[in-house]
Amino acid sequence: MTNSDFRYAHHPEDAKRYTTQDLRDHFLLPELFKKNEINLTYTMYDRYIAGGAFPVDQKVMLEPIDELKADFFLERRELGIINVGGSGKVTVDGKEYELGHKEALYVGRGNKEVSFEAVDGEQPYFYLNSAPAHKAYPTKKVTKNEAEIVHLGDDKYSNKRTINKLLVNSVIDTCQLQMGMTELAEGNIWNTMPPHTHSRRMEVYFYFDLEEGQTISHFMGQPHETRHIFMKNHQAIISPEWSIHAGAGTSSYTFIWGMAGENLDYSDMDKVAVNELK
Fold it and tell me: What does this protein's record comment on cofactor binding (predicted)?
């Protein structure tokens, strides 16, 4: 079963007046993984889709959702998958791809059947992102060893981290989708510091590897009008093009960033000094 909900885009002037619950209703994706289901959110920010596939004891199929008005899900789209659980299998038009923990798969436009299932009694959690595509590129698996690795931050500022660029144009061909994974070093809590915006792209953050009982405060909003949302493990949040996107946890964690929009330039960002935030 494939379920979906819908989120409109929001003007930053409107977002200034949102209550805590309004922010959560409009931007937070609170429950991505439900047993033997695929749960997706279709957002009007670059028509991006984010969600999760959670096969427990049966195969689950990626079905076209109403918002697409398509005969099959990838008729006009590309798909990125990162497994954040135990070993699992993705089958794309009859070809099988086994994904281990923190391995990724890019699925190009035009593939008609995509399914997900567990392997050898393990429990995979397939995190999914999708964007409109103008061209069909080959389906390809990407492991952490094949990713472009960048080390950033410093223990002094509690933001020492490793960025794994998995589904990006320096590693594979995509139309506009980009996905990667940032792992914080033990004892570090800040991600994406100093913060930035990028008006040419929107973004979705998905947090995982968070210890039981801990929390993450995700910061968003315009640099002069920031807001925060407290989040749990396995939750995601939509980041509009006008919004910063940064977070701090009560313990270390990992997060996946996914982007789509005007270009594929990872470094295309408008940086904000930390002492200029309001």
Answer: Binds 1 zinc ion per subunit.
What tokens does 25 get? 């209703």
Whole domain around residue 201: which residue ranges?
2-276
The secondary structure of residue 93, as a DSSP letter, is T
- Binding residue positions for Zn(2+): 196, 198, 203, 245
β-pairing verdict for 178-184 and 190-191: unpaired
C-beta separation of 218 from 237 below 8 A: yes
Number of domains in the chain: 1
Residue stretches of the annotated binding site: 196, 198, 203, 245
Over the stretch 98-146, which tens digit does the pLDDT of each residue have? Answer: 999 999 999 999 999 999 999 988 999 999 999 999 999 999 999 999 9
Provide the CATH number for the domain around residue 265. Answer: 2.60.120.10
Q: From the CB of residue 151, how many other CB atoms can be counted at a distance below 10 Å?
A: 9
Report the distance separating Cα 175 and Cα 178, nearest Å: 9
